From TrEMBL:
PROSITE patterns for the chain: PROKAR_LIPOPROTEIN (PS51257)
Top-level lineage group: Bacteria
GO molecular function, one term: 1-alkyl-2-acetylglycerophosphocholine esterase activity
Signal peptide limits: 1-28
InterPro entries named in the record: AB_hydrolase_fold
A biological-process GO annotation: lipid catabolic process
Keywords associated with the record: Hydrolase, Lipid degradation, Lipid metabolism, Signal
Stated name of the protein: Esterase
Keyword check for Transcription regulation: no
Coiled coil: none
Amino acid sequence: MLRFRRSSLPVLLLAATAAGGCATTSVAREVSGGRPAAGQVSLPRPTGPFKVGTTSLHLVDQSRRDPWTPSRARELMVSVWYPASAPGKEDVPHMTAKAAAHFGSEQGAATLNLGMPPGRADWGAVRTHATADAPVARKAGRLPVVLYSSGLADPRTWNTTLVEDLASRGYAVITVDHTGEASEVEFPGGRLVTGRLAEGTPPTSPAEVTALLKKAMAARVADARFVLDRLPGIGRGRFGGALDAGRVGMVGQSAGGFTAAQTMHDDRRVRAGVNMDGQMDYTGGKPDGSELSTVARDGLDRPLLLMGTESEGSGDHTEQPSWDAFWRNTRGWKGDVTLAGSRHATYTDAEALLPPLAEQGIAPKGGLTGAVGTVRPARAIAAERAYVTSFFDRWLRGRDDHLLDGPSSRFPEMRFTA
């Protein structure tokens, strides 16, 4: 996500619109578990049977130049989240100190994407429920692998709520920072590379926006495919062969959802994917189907779940030209669900972290509901976790809880569109 003028960028690039009011005190506490210190918030605990471990890796693709800094080879930071045994203290920060400081600054994604007041929230104080470099839980068996790609300009950490839950349920989840586009990426030694999307004059013409989208998406898909290339080596390393490179899925939010779908189209190693509120075209103005991606034009022969929101320009496949094209052209299993009362940032950590911050008077510009909607945060988080897990359990593990068969009394907030 990245906020520019609404007239010049499609929904894929936009943060949630500023509208509405704030959540009530009870709703904020429902997610945070109580009133935190000023400017501090916490993530909800994962719900699976396993503890969670995580490790960060610095990957360099010597075969590719960086599209944002052509003088350098392409460098990525990724994190692997996995079921752990005998973990120690849960002390891994949500973001590194340098990254958190930039994320909350005037140039960071918290400000540009979410409209948060710069310098008010203590993003560096947020902790995960994972332990660094904990041993892999051998009881979990061979681990299906899920790649996670965040929204445009968001860091790889910005859906830890979902990622940790998948890891606690027996998945290895690899989160990918798209360097040069992400708000900030901290490399070993403390080197911070900040995003370049907002440098200079923002694109204003439809053609300029289309060109920027195509450049960003090409880099993202190449990043994902490079991680897939490195997956066997990652699995043979400290994971001792626990990662199952033959069972790979991908999920993402906004541009990350588009990335998941497009990577599936371009690379058959990805067996199943989830697109959370990401349009699948490059239209520089109002999406009209004139700049469809190849995944929208061709469809897929493997399963993809579309998860829409009630944001302006979103909705189900009957309301989005690129989703409609995909729906008509795809040959594999497909599903389309929309969460009532949701907004574009609902399927991110914003749903867990913004309500308790708003309770403390630190709210997005224009109000909380413009960012995360009116759905109760705890319900939104539970629904996102349940539907994504159900999907990957079905297609990577052969376990079907039938949640995706149709409307469910467990989640009346989720609307199905056939």
